[in-house]
Amino acid sequence: MAERWIQSAIKNPGALRAQARREGAITKRGTISREWLEEKAEQGGTVGRRARLALTLRGLNRGRRKRSQPREVEMAVRAVRRAAGK
């Protein structure tokens, strides 16, 4: 699998959001309506493909915890705590 597959999958950044804005599918929070995405995902063509990708990316983002520190710092802190515990 490609290392940066998401970047190569998105050909025209902002195109789906522009389409959603034209059709009034932007919510008060500024996101694209899930119902609109699911409706468009059933269609074929470019918009359907973009909607399916958006739903996939939305699912990937779920469950991720927000990091308060960069990963390297977090790992260093864990190593120090482990060493102190021994």
Written description of the protein model:
It is a single chain. The chain is an all-alpha fold and 86 residues long. The protein has one domain (1-63). The protein is built from five helices and no strands. The N and C termini lie far apart (40 Å). The mean pLDDT is 84.
Summarize the SSE layout with pairings.
Layout: H1 5-9, H2 15-22, H3 34-41, H4 45-61, H5 71-85
| Spatial separation of the terminal alpha carbons | 40 Å
Specify the biggest β-sheet: none
Write down the secondary-structure element order.
HHHHH
The count of helical stretches stands at: 5
Number of domains: 1
Brief summary:
With 86 residues, the protein is an all-alpha fold.
Q: Which key features would you list for this structure?
A:
mainly alpha, 0% strand, elongated
